[in-house]
Amino acid sequence: MNYYNYNRFVYKRKNNKYLEGFTKRLAVVAVIFILMFTIKITYTYNGNTVLFKIEEYYRKDYTQTIKNIVSHSNYISVFSNNIFQNKKEVFKLDFMPLDGQIIKPFGEYVDPNSKKSFFNNGIDIEVKDTYNVLCVYDGIIEKVENTKDNGIVVTVSHKDNYKTVYYNLIELNKDVGEEIKKGDILGKVDKEKNKSFHFEVMHSGSYVDPLKFLSNR
To answer: Which of 11, 100, 175, 178 fits as disulfide partner to 126, beta carbons 3.0 to 4.6 Å?
Structure first.
């Protein structure tokens, strides 16, 4: 092989290597471009599809569906009943155990005769024409005490750690452990012996003002 032909062979071989490398690079770029374009189209299509579905559900009229649920099921009534059943009843008094004027309110007061300060654990109601003492709330007779100064004292236990205490009774219609309903006659008070009737309300061992539980206040 002469020198001229040898140079032509070497030059052609170099060109072929350069062309081969360029072709490979171009193929890689083309593959990457096609892949990116495919991903973009797929993402755009899926995105538009999701948005289209959301808009379709948003604009759909559910009026008939709601009517069918209300007319053919009792879900709403059951739900309402559960709410009312789970609603906690509040301790409220519809009346005092004895009709009459309150002559000593709950809390501190000054005795007009001795001028000393005292704390009244309950309220004192003036005894007039009514003899019957009524239970103010459903409960159970917890304790009965026969005292010298306060006559028969009855403690009635109620739910949620409430108790009511009735003083100055001369008769009792119930025994310890018996259930008693709101409005039942608990006993009688002697207006000749007692000018006032003492009534207390306790919650979790503490004295509270009975008047604050009156529902009509």
So the answer is: 100
The rounded percent of the chain whose pLDDT value lies above 90 is 42
Bridge partners of residue 133, in order along the sequence: 187
* 77-95 mean pLDDT: 63
pLDDT at residue 32 in the model: 80
Closest to 136 (Cα-Cα) out of 180, 172, 101? 180
Is 168 buried (19+), middle (13-18) or exposed (0-12) by CB count in 10 A? buried
| CB half-sphere exposure, 54, CA atoms < 13 A | 6
Tell me the C-alpha distance between 151 and 133, whole Å. 14
Q: Cβ distance 196 to 123 under 8 Å?
A: no
From 82-86, 156-160, 199-203, the region with the lowest mean pLDDT: 82-86
Please state whether beta strands 179-180 and 162-172 pair in parallel, antiparallel, or not at all (unpaired).
Answer: unpaired
Alpha carbon distance 193, 142 (integer Å): 25
106, 119 Cβ separation under 8 angstroms: no
